[in-house]
Amino acid sequence: MLNRTQIGEILHRIAEMFPDAHCELIHANPFELTIAVALSAQCTDQKVNQVTRSLFQKYRTPEDYVSVPLEELEQDIRSIGLFRSKAKNIQALSRMLLEQYDGQVPREHEQLVQLPGVGRKTANVVVSNAFGEPAIAVDTHVERVSKRLGLANWKDSVLEVEKKLMKKVPREEWTQTHHRLIFFGRYHCKAQNPACPACPVLEFCREGKKRMKKLETV
DNA sequence: CTCCCGATAT
DNA sequence: ATATCAGGAG
């Protein structure tokens, strides 16, 4: 549907819209980033930052997370949701870091996804934001935006969406593009009430045009 | 595929 | 009341 030129124009306009898109999870090192991303599943970045502000003061190393009872860590992250599985994962992840990696977060994607609670998306966020390795992490925003715009198909899995985006974008722009698509999805092309009437890429968006027609009939 | 789950927006 | 939020594991 979309040709090379159109895709380039779409990404260019989104880049102009959010020139300073970046990781909004507050962190001071790769370990904190890994914890923050693991906590961010089905939860807003704002809420994660609210919890990690105190969490990262109490827990600074993998040893710190392992040294408390599971129930205590659960209470410390309870307000984030999915807190039982996340607390268990964080302790197991910390143990694995201590046993296999001398307490350091590994730099390789292949090793990161072996950590409990770390899947493909989280690993991509860590390698790109903490270690400078180009990656496109497909989260709920990237998936929704890509499918609405027609950069991917509605039936595509998140892995298929990631592959299609990597093919359409130069490798050295993967991480920036990833952040811009997140900002675009979070602040403009939102899940509920997307701002189609004020959208700079409406002319390329099948879903947007469809939504505009529905607005006219009302 | 379902389950995990509290907080917030709509 | 319901949908959604930087998903991952079983």
Automatic annotation (TrEMBL):
A molecular function GO annotation: class I DNA-(apurinic or apyrimidinic site) endonuclease activity
Domain of life per record: Bacteria
Protein keywords: 4Fe-4S, DNA damage, DNA repair, DNA-binding, Endonuclease, Glycosidase, Hydrolase, Iron, Iron-sulfur, Lyase, Metal-binding, Nuclease
Entry annotated with the keyword Protease: no
Co-factor binding details: Binds 1 [4Fe-4S] cluster.
Positions of the HhH-GPD domain: 39-187
PANTHER family: A/G-SPECIFIC ADENINE GLYCOSYLASE/ENDONUCLEASE III (PTHR10359), ENDONUCLEASE III (PTHR10359:SF18)
Protein name: Endonuclease III
Organism of this sequence: Marinicrinis sediminis
